[in-house]
Automatic annotation (TrEMBL):
Descriptive protein name: NUDIX hydrolase
Entry-linked InterPro entries: NUDIX_hydrolase-like_dom_sf (IPR015797), NUDIX_hydrolase_dom (IPR000086), NUDT19 (IPR039121)
Entry-linked PANTHER family: ACYL-COENZYME A DIPHOSPHATASE NUDT19, TESTOSTERONE-REGULATED PROTEIN RP2
GO molecular function: hydrolase activity
Keywords: Hydrolase, Magnesium, Manganese, Metal-binding
Listed PROSITE patterns: NUDIX (PS51462)
Cofactor section: Mg(2+); Mn(2+)
Superkingdom of origin organism: Bacteria
Domain Nudix hydrolase stretches: 26-227
């Protein structure tokens, strides 16, 4: 159990937490989606250096659950919120919010929309000024996801998502998220955007190549992203990823003192 050494500021906070001098910040529920295409390749965004959380890190599209993501008015096709709740050990309302947030945030940050006119189809093209206006309205929270789908006559396709992981930000962090990870295949005909609102660069890359670049210090990956990419690198095709069995276990890295040094370990 070696873990990652903590910088001085986080090490001091970790000691204060262990001593009971301060309390951890409650995590916010969030969803992240790994978009895949043949290769297999994954879609990554580099967060702007000015971001308060994970500045400069390469991440998958995702974000916090909006209270409106739990709206029962969201048109739905595929496994029910109750079924998703069983997978992620969440109540039905939270599960609904997580899946809606996954689809909404993916569209906001990549332009990929996991929805279609009916339960058996997917939107073929999300480019154009009208789609961009809706995407920006969703980002600004001027438009609810349920209203967006209803106006376009679309249903959310929860069957296009596969559960992958569950990570909770360590208690030493002051911005924390309780994040469920999904994987999804880029729908035929759709294209990702070049840049998302919180990103200054995007890339399609093989998972193993991203891990190797992180080892060389060329890119920064947070532990959940690194672990996910390392796992995906074991599969030869998108079909293999989708067919892989997954037992969703909650991962909460913890700060421990090892030989006088505070380190972050993942069990």
């Amino acid at each position: 159990m070696t873990g990652f050494p903590l910088p001085a500021e986080l090490a001091e906070r970790a000691r204060d937490l262990i001593a009971g001098k301060i309390a951890p910040v409650p995590p916010r529920d969030a969803a992240t989606v790994v978009i895949l295409r043949d290769g297999p390749e994954v879609y990554l965004l580099r967060r702007k250096a000015t971001m308060a959380f994970a500045a400069g890190a390469y991440v998958f599209p995702g974000g916090s659950v909006d209270v409106r993501d739990t709206d029962h008015a969201v048109a739905w096709a595929g496994p029910s919120p109750a079924e998703w709740g069983a997978v992620f050990r969440a109540d039905e309302q939270l599960a609904r919010g997580l899946v809606c947030a996954a689809v909404r945030e993916t569209f906001e940050e990549s332009g990929v929309l996991l929805a279609g006119p009916d339960p058996g189809s997917v939107v073929a093209d999300t480019t154009g000024d009208d789609w961009e206006a809706d995407r920006l309205a969703l980002i600004d929270r001027d438009l609810a996801f349920a209203d967006f789908l209803a106006r376009r006559g679309l249903v959310l396709r929860s069957d296009l998502l596969k559960p992958w992981a569950h990570w909770i930000t360590p208690e030493i962090e002051q911005r924390r998220f309780d994040t469920r990870f999904f994987v999804a295949v880029l729908p035929e005909g759709q294209r990702t955007r070049d840049v998302g609102g919180e990103a200054d660069q995007v890339a399609w890359t093989r998972p193993g190549e991203a891990v190797e670049r992180a080892h060389r210090g060329e890119i920064f990956l947070m532990p959940p992203t690194y672990r996910t990419l390392s796992e995906l690198a074991e599969y030869a095709s998108v079909a293999d990823v989708l067919a892989a069995p997954r037992d969703i276990v909650t991962i909460l890295p913890k700060a421990v003192e090892i030989e006088g040094e505070m380190r972050l370990v993942t069990t």
